[in-house]
Amino acid sequence: MRRRSPDHVEVGVTYWPAAVGPYMWHEFPADTVMRDLAAIAARRVPVVRVLLSWDAFMPTDRAPNPRRMRELETLLGAARDLDLSVVLTLFAQSVGDCVMLPTYAIERRSPRRGVRCVTDARVVDGGPRDIYTDPLMLEVQVRWLDAMLAAFAGHPAIAAWDLGYDPATTIRPRRIADMTAWVALLSERVHAAAEECRLTLGQGDVVGGRGVRLAAMAAHVDALGMVLQPQRLPLPGDPLDPGRAVFTVELAQALAGAQTPLTVEVDIASGDVVEAEAGDTAVQDHVTASPHGAFRAADQVLQRLIASGVAGLCAGAWCDWGERLADAAPADRRAWLSRRGLVDSTGVSKPITEAWDAVVAREHALGEPAPYPVSIDVESYYASLPDSLLDVHASWNAERGDAPAILD
After folding, report:
1. 56: Cβ–Cβ under 8 A, 6 or more apart, which residues?
2. What CA–CA distance (Å, rounded) separates 326 from 142?
3. In the predicted structure, residue 1 carries a pLDDT above the cut 70
4. First and final C-alpha spacing in the chain
């Protein structure tokens, strides 16, 4: 088992196949996966994040699907042969406004505004059950995790186990203590198997109030992750201004505690977007940036994040999703999600790839974290949102930004 180096910045990529995207485990394209992993290795990206869909791996509350387990074994074997490290992500995974859950994890009569539940690649009525406190949900998660650890703990390709992917976007905890207890329960089992445990949060947990406290999570895991989507940050300025992204990460370091290793997934959507014609009912993409504009922004963001002392950087997607997924959730409402790749859906490199090539060209020594502010009253910050966020951002611009902030 490969551990995250305490001395160098970890570099990786989240993997979704072009043809099936987030539905990889519902329609596992073995040959494509093998080719893509070989292409990732050839690009010298050493770490691959793989999301294990709950509805595909644990369709009943009794045991993991044997076929999915065999397919995961195939993926891990290929990764081992290519000298790739894999971070496996389980449980709640927010992809846009969607979360993939089996039917028993969905309350059909309790929909949640702005959240869509997906089962077997179909959007279904209802909202997610409380995975943090519901006895059945806790029992199932422990059963699934124990089965995964029994089968794969110690596998030479596995770098870490991740307990979620921006879970609070679609399954928000009712109380701060609920999510803390959930992380403590599951991380204890991962650590008992002598494995590394992580949890990937969302930028909404930093710039919004969602019942998540980074320091409380950090107390139970070996590293925290954060999904950073610079083009969607609720901050003043140009969406691709690198300062907005760097500020958010340095604020996350302050909220988590400067000693917490923080890995950052950088999601930047890029590509040629055709403007919708008058009367077109298709959802317009207002996020995706021009290919070269995205490259320039990514190049600056990545270099500055390294200087800010992050423990790891992860590209949001290896490849763009194909046309087949354009009308499927979640891309039907958030087209930009399908354009986060380093390569396009045919495998051709996009300009943004050059920014990541520059990062993997050499190892980067781990720098000292640069939390901002150095001291923060966490509860006062969350209680005063969004004003507190804008105040801290203005202060950061005055001290660390490229231009003086304009203070009211």
Report:
1. 25, 26, 65, 68, 100
2. 35
3. no
4. 53
